[in-house]
Amino acid sequence: MLRRFFPEIKKLSSNMSCQAGNVKLKGKVAVVTASTDGIGLAIARRLAQDGASVVISSRKENNVQRAVNDLQSEGLTVSGIVCHVGKASDRQKLLECASSKYGGIDILVSNAAVNPTVGHVLECEESSWDKIFEINVKAAYMLSKEVLPFLRQRGGGSITYISSIAGFQPFDVLGAYSVSKTALLGLTKAASQGLAEENIRVNCVAPGIVETRFAAALHEQESAREAAISKIPMGRLAQPHEIAGIVSFLCSNDASYITGETIVVSGGMSSRL
Ligand SMILES: NC(=O)c1ccc[n+]([C@@H]2O[C@H](COP(=O)([O-])OP(=O)(O)OC[C@H]3O[C@@H](n4cnc5c(N)ncnc54)[C@H](O)[C@@H]3O)[C@@H](O)[C@H]2O)c1
């Protein structure tokens, strides 16, 4: 009853329950790329709700500031820095910022991706192919190498890539992007092997179609939305928080014996591809 008249009580108590109840990532420090919007923002929020100190990043200062303000106003421990993942100096600043602010790094979530073109894989311009592989694959690979000394200092840690259902079965119009997401499935396997004995786990999440700006072409127009939904047994698109919970699980001790794996989060879509 009280909450109906004082909505801020509801907000406060839900934040308190996050902080008091969900502490599975307490004491952990997480870095999430491209985390001012969409799935990345949902992941940053969820890791922080689960107790981690989180460093948010994306290419634009004002977006970083907005996301940091929003999450701090929810009582979460976050800070932010600009990071274009294709720039080595930005990546280094991101990792150093997290380490100096919170005393180390335990978790990397590599979420940034681009898709500058549509069409069959062999119709992709060389420049678009290079851009897709530079951001979606090479930056994830470089960040993984660069975060290792920080994870080793903590005696272990977790790296999670964000692939896509299209990495398993390429979407016709997302040819090159799909292949870049397939590469992340391989990177997950390859990177996990050498790191398992150091207690550094490498996993991957492959979302189906998630209602974000990135996937606007698949859901903004009613006809496109209906076509997309017809391929999803659950009959709806995913929301970003439904991806974030799985990422948080993979980063946590609940997944302490899971490495080299990809979890598909597609509402059953993989069975209809
Ligand atoms: N939305 C979906 O249906 C869907 C499905 C499967 C996988 N994914 C993957 O999920 C991830 C997040 O996508 P999203 O749907 O939240 O959309 P989004 O547009 O919010 O996320 C992509 C983000 O990457 C950022 N980015 C692009 N280039 C960057 C760079 N050089 N440096 C830093 N950031 C950069 C963009 O600014 C953007 O914020 C991506 O890896 C995407 O491929 C999305």
Write up what this structure looks like.
This is Dehydrogenase/reductase SDR family member 4. GO terms for molecular function: carbonyl reductase (NADPH) activity. It comes from Gryllus longicercus. InterPro entries: NAD(P)-bd_dom_sf, Sc_DH/Rdtase_CS, SDR_fam. Pfam families: adh_short_C2. With 273 residues, the chain is α/β, with parallel strands linked by helices. The chain has a single domain (9-18, 25-210, 239-265), classed as Rossmann fold (3-Layer(aba) Sandwich). Helices cover 48% and strands 14% of the residues. The chain contains 10 helices and 7 strands. The chain has a 7-stranded parallel sheet, sandwiched between helices. Helix 3 (38-49) packs across helix 10 and helix 5 runs parallel beside helix 6 (126-153). The model is unreliable at 1-20 (pLDDT under 50). Nicotinamide-adenine-dinucleotide binds next to helix 3.
Number-wise, the strands total 7
Helix content: 40-55%
H and E order: HHEHEHEHEHEHEHHHE
| Count of discrete alpha- or pi-helical segments spanning 4 or more residues | 10
Please report the first level of CATH classification, the CATH class: Alpha Beta
Largest beta sheet: strand ordering: 3-2-1-4-5-6-7
How is the CATH topology named?
Rossmann fold
What shape does the CA trace take?
A: globular
End-to-end C-alpha gap = 48 Å
Count of individual domains? 1
The CATH superfamily label reads NAD(P)-binding Rossmann-like Domain
Strand content: 5-15%
Please state the CA-atom Rg, rounded to the nearest Å.
18 Å
Low-confidence stretches: 1-20
The structural class is: alpha/beta
